[in-house]
Amino acid sequence: MNWPKQSPHLSAYFKSPVDPYQIQCDDPPKSNLRGGLLRNDRNNHHLILKNPLKYGPRSWMKYINTPHYDHSSQAKVGVLITNLGTPDEATKPALRRYLKEFLADPRVVEVPRLIWWMVLNLVILNIRPARSAKAYQTVWTDEGSPLMIHTQHQAQALSDHLKELGHNVIVKYAMRYGNPSITNTLDEMAAEGVQRLLVLPLYPQYCGATSASTFDAIASDFTQRRWIPELRFVTHYHDDAAYIDACAEKIKAHWEDHGKANKLLFSYHGIPKRYLTNGDPYHCECYKTSRLIAEQLNLDEDEYMTTFQSRFGREEWLKPYTDETLKSFPSAGVHSVQVFCPGFSADCLETIEEIGEENREYFMEAGGKRYEYITALNAEVGHIHALSQLIERNLSGWNTKTTATENAQQLTQQRAKAMGAAQ
Ligand SMILES: C=CC1=C(C)c2cc3[nH]c(cc4nc(cc5[nH]c(cc1n2)c(C)c5CCC(=O)O)C(CCC(=O)O)=C4C)c(C)c3C=C
Ligand SMILES: [Fe+2]
Ligand SMILES: [Fe+2]
C-alpha cells in the first residue's frame, strides 16, 4: 500500500508502513512533509489542531491543547514574577471577591475546612470587606492599587534589564489571588510559545502561606494543560547576597538624607505561631535576613530589632508584634525609629497604611519623637539588578542568549558532526 508521507506523529498514529522514525522529530523543516489525514503544515512541521474549542479558556476538553506545535522553533523562555494580589477596586464588592478567594486558600488559613467555610462565609465576609475597602481607599491611586502598580513596573524594568544583559526572555507578572491570574498569564505565555518557565514569587522569605501557595496555583494550572512547560521555581531568596545588598543600600541612602535613628526596626508580615511550631521556616528566614542586612550595615545587636505585623484573627501570631513593640519603645528610651520591611518587595496596604500611618500614630501617641518608614525596594534600580542576578542564576543552562537562527545553525552543525562521526 502506498501511504502518503506524513509527519512522524501522524504516521505513528495511523500505523503507516512508513518508518515513523525515518524523519527525526527534531529535524528542521523538510520539504517532503505533506499533509496527512489531519492537516500537517507543509513547511514548518506543524501540527495545527483546527478546532478552536480545543484551545482557550477551560473548555469541555479536559486538557488545554497546544495551539502551535513547531519542532523547529526555539524553546522560548518565560520569567513569571508573582505577588500576593490585590482587589480590583477599593470597594466592598471587590474586597469581598478578593478576600473570598484569598482567605479560602487552605495554605493561608489552616483550619478544618468545614469550620472555616462557616466562619469565612457567615462572619468574616460580612464584616471585613467594608473595613478593608476603607483602608484600601486611603492608599489607592489614580492608576490603581500600589501593589499592582509596583509589580507592573518591576516586570517592565526586569524585562528591559534582562534584555540589556542580552537575554531573550518573555517577562510577565501575575497575582496569586485576583488579577491578572496565574492561569490567564500562563495562557498568554503558552500562546507566545514559552516552553521553559521560571517562576519567581516576590516573597524573599519562604512561607507555606505564600511561596507554597503560589506553587500550588502553578501545579493546579498544569493539571489542565496537555503540554506543560519545563519548570523552575524559586522558593526563597532571603539570604541572597544581591538582595541583602539592595536592602542595605536602600537603608544607607535613607541615612544619607535623614541621618540614623535610635533603632532600626525590621518589620515582616506575621503568620500564626502554630505554623512555625509545625515546621515552617519563615520565622528563621526573617531573622536571618535581618541579621545579614544588619551585618552589612555594621549595626550592633542593640541597634536593630525584628518584629512581625499584620495580625489576623485571635490566635497567637509570631512575636514580637510590631505595634506593641513601637508602643513600648518611648518608655524604654527609644524616641526615634526607622522601620524597614524586607519581606515586602513592593509597597502595599500593609506597608503604606499599616506601617506608614497606623504604627506611626501608635509610636507618637506613646511619646515617640521621630518615626520614619523606609519604603520598599519596589522597582528601584538596586532591586531590579538584584532580581536580575537571581533570575540569571536560575536561568542557567537555558540558553537565553542565543537567537532562534543561531540555535538552528548550532543544531545543523551538531547533526553534520554526528553524521560525519557515524560514517
Ligand atoms: C489570614 C491570614 C493571613 C496570613 C497567614 C497572611 C500571610 C502573609 N501575607 C503576606 C503579604 C501580604 N498580605 C497582604 C494583605 C492581607 N493579608 C491578610 C491575611 C493574611 N496574610 C489579609 C486579610 C490581607 C488583606 C488586607 C486586609 O483586609 O487587611 C498584602 C497586601 C495586599 C495589597 O493589596 O496591598 C501583602 C503583600 C505575606 C508575605 C504573608 C506571609 C508570610
Ligand atoms: Fe497577608
Ligand atoms: Fe526560627
UniProtKB/TrEMBL annotation:
Cellular compartment(s): Cytoplasm
The keyword Ligase is assigned to this record: no
Substrates-to-products reaction catalysed: heme b + 2 H(+) = protoporphyrin IX + Fe(2+); Fe-coproporphyrin III + 2 H(+) = coproporphyrin III + Fe(2+)
Location (main, coarse): cytoplasm
Pathway: Porphyrin-containing compound metabolism; protoheme biosynthesis; protoheme from protoporphyrin-IX: step 1/1
GO CC aspect terms: cytoplasm
One of the GO BP terms on file: heme biosynthetic process
Gene3D superfamilies named among the record's database cross-references: 3.40.50.1400
Keywords, sorted A to Z: Cytoplasm, Heme biosynthesis, Iron, Lyase, Metal-binding, Porphyrin biosynthesis
Enzyme class: lyase
Binding-site positions, Fe(2+): 269, 350
Keyword hit for Manganese: no
MF term (GO), any: ferrochelatase activity
EC number: 4.98.1.1
Similarity-based family: Belongs to the ferrochelatase family.
Function: Catalyzes the ferrous insertion into protoporphyrin IX.
Protein name in UniProt: Ferrochelatase
The encoding gene: hemH2
